[in-house]
């Protein structure tokens, strides 16, 4: 039986609020404490580096995927349990997603938004049923939550879209949702 694997999308920068790094640190430690595997973008900078180092320090298996062109920019973290270099960003996202059972989105920028919207779109198209958990650290993702509500209100998506995303305020709440998901049969 394989480990329950949590794909974490987050920033290659740390952001201005120290709470973001604290959340990333807590998420990495929680993944290890629950004997799950971290799947992430293989960078050793920003929140990506924080979540990976925290998970590693607490004994978690780590699975990183990085495209060749970001090896220097994101400082590819080669000391992971598994380290994969892809040709491009599309392949990176696919490999990360295919090797995970759930998705957690921590604060991040355009890349994290791109990853989030891709897995949300795949969910809308019924290509998967994996949980998507948005960790709204100190309200960071509130404008995104408001935008999703606006998209639904304006008729560009069904109300079910909002149900595809679980918004939580803390890592502890995310862990509760992940534990529920880990107990269910593997989602497509």
UniProtKB/TrEMBL annotation:
Hydrolase recorded as keyword: yes
UniProt keyword terms in alphabetical order: Cytokinin biosynthesis, Hydrolase
Annotated catalysed reactions: AMP + H2O = D-ribose 5-phosphate + adenine
Keyword Protein biosynthesis carried by entry: no
InterPro entries: LOG, LOG_fam
GO BP term, pick one: cytokinin biosynthetic process
A GO molecular function held by the record: AMP nucleosidase activity
EC main group: hydrolase
Cellular component aspect of the GO annotation: cytosol
Protein EC: 3.2.2.n1
NCBIfam families given in the database record: Rossman fold protein, TIGR00730 family
Family statement: Belongs to the LOG family.
Protein name: Cytokinin riboside 5'-monophosphate phosphoribohydrolase
């Amino acid at each position: 039986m394989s480990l329950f694997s949590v794909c974490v999308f987050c920033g290659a920068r740390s952001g201005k609020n120290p709470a973001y790094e604290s959340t990333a640190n807590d998420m990495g430690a929680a993944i290890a404490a629950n004997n799950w595997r971290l799947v992430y973008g293989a960078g050793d900078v920003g929140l990506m580096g924080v979540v990976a180092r925290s998970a590693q320090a607490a004994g978690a298996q780590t699975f990183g995927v990085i495209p060749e062109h970001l090896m220097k920019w994101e400082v590819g973290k080669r000391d992971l349990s598994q380290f994969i270099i892809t040709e491009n960003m599309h392949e990176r996202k696919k490999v990360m997603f295919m090797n995970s059972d759930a998705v957690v989105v921590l604060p991040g920028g355009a890349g994290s938004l791109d990853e989030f919207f891709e897995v949300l779109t795949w969910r809308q198209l019924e290509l998967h049923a994996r949980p998507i958990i948005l960790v709204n650290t100190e309200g960071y993702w509130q404008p995104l939550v408001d935008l999703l509500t606006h998209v639904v209100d304006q008729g560009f998506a069904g109300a079910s879209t909002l149900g595809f995303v679980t918004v939580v305020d803390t890592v502890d709440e995310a862990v509760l949702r992940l534990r529920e998901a880990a107990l269910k049969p593997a989602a497509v």
